[in-house]
Automatic annotation (TrEMBL):
Residues 58-175 form the OmpA-like domain. SUPFAM superfamilies: OmpA-like. The lineage of its organism: Bacteria, Pseudomonadati, Pseudomonadota, Alphaproteobacteria, Rhodobacterales. Belongs to the Pal lipoprotein family. This is Peptidoglycan-associated lipoprotein. It is found in: Cell outer membrane. Residues 1-22 form the signal peptide. It is a lipid-anchor. It comes from the Bacteria. The gene is pal.
Amino acid sequence: MNAATKPVLLAALLGLAACAQPAPTVAPPVVDPYASTGGGAVFQGDLAGGVLGAEATAQYFRGTVGDTVLFPADQTTLTPEARSILAAQAAWLTRHTAFTAVVQGHAEETGTREYNLALGARRASAVQEYLVAQGVAPGRIRTLSFGKERPAATCSDEGCYAQNRRAVTVVTEAAPPAVAMAPVASAAPAGGVVGAGM
């Protein structure tokens, strides 16, 4: 190698060295402390709101069981389709006793406010009576009438009226009962009386 090519070669090697990346650091392996404890996870029952307990949710009740029954015009009589939906609601409520229900009665926009409130109340009562007859405890179901105040659809034709003649069962999980705490009695100091002045 001659003296003229040495500086060029040295510059090229220094350039390559500057571009080289440091060796990546190797992370230590993850150690699973439960890996050698036997047969893996053990199923211990449904988890509320999880995949295993997905049926025990208000969303499941609304979407899968069905929360709405429809009525013919000016009627409170349950149709065969309504009875089928209510039988499924009763079965769900029987399985999931931690839930309570409010049955909301609704009416279409025709008629007076008072008439529709009364009609909504009778529709909600018809649903409540059916659920109780299917074995749901009466104390778990309340009724409420909205009359024509909360329509499911807003227009002035039979298609909208039919959607608004309904009763909706809204379920909520009951709060666990409150545990009463006993008052804590303070002990008197040894050899003295509590509250005595000195």
